[in-house]
Amino acid sequence: MALQSSGQISLNDIHVEAGGSSGSLCEINDSDIRGLISKSSGAQMAFNEWYGASSSITATLRQGSTSSTSFTLSGLSSSATTLIAGVYFWHEDVYGQGSAPVPTVNGSNMTRDIYRHATVSNETQYISFYRYYIGTSTSVTMGRSGAPTGGYNTQGMGIWEITGNPSMPQNQQGSGSSLTQSADAGDAVFVGACHNWSAPSDISNLDNQQSAGQHKYGVDMKSSSGSVTYSTSSLQGGMAAVRYTP
């Protein structure tokens, strides 16, 4: 359960959220307490930085798949959060195209954590996941840059808002019809797939799944630790997965 987003907050509240026992000894510089807001040892910290902090990640779909090149996301959380963009791109008649749309937040490029790129015959496909920490901003302008033109193409993205400023310890991609990813309880695993011309097939074990052109992508909010296999069918370009931890 996330910490409150306003009002008085105590070191004990923070320690309990980090997994400690209520009333047990702790210091603000303890690694589990700092870890809730991704602070380094000895960094300057204020108690209001823990507003909304959580020992587990929650993901809220803020924008379903859209081909719009510029739009505003408003009504975002006033607690510290990060945006995750699932980006799809398909281009015909451009052999081995080496670039794809890069999502932007208020004009700044998001950080790409994983992508799957495949060229089949005269088609190029990408499925990617990008991340950008927005802190406590409740409204941002989304855009895209660097997309190739010419030929026939479809491109766009879906946006999730996730709690805190998570780390990204694992990612993977491959040409097969399944990926197995290990994760801990409280983690979030995002998975995407590039399909062929048939209607995109759902990816197993995902929530908030989005369908866009020849692509499917979504998130698995982990309630328990262990490995999960995400599988689909009718693939053409392969799959990609990225794991985020609080």
Question: Helix fraction?
Answer: under 10%
Distance, first to last CA: 13 Å
Q: What's the tally of helices?
A: 2
Query: Strand order across the biggest sheet?
Result: 1-9-3-7-6
User: How many structural domains?
Assistant: 2
Write up this protein.
The chain has 246 residues and is mainly β. 5% of the residues lie in helices and 51% in strands. The chain has helices spanning 11-17, 31-35, and strands at residues 59-66, 70-74, 81-92, 102-105, 108-109, 111-120, 123-135, 139-145, 152-163, 167-174, 178-183, 188-195, 207-212, 215-221, 226-231, 235-245. The longest helix has 7 residues, at 11-17. The model has no long low-confidence stretch (mean pLDDT 85).
SSE arrangement:
Elements: H1 11-17, H2 31-35, E1 59-66, E2 70-74, E3 81-92, E4 102-105, E5 108-109, E6 111-120, E7 123-135, E8 139-145, E9 152-163, E10 167-174, E11 178-183, E12 188-195, E13 207-212, E14 215-221, E15 226-231, E16 235-245
Antiparallel strand pairs: 1-9, 2-8, 3-7, 3-9, 4-5, 4-8, 6-7, 10-16, 11-15, 12-14, 12-16, 13-14
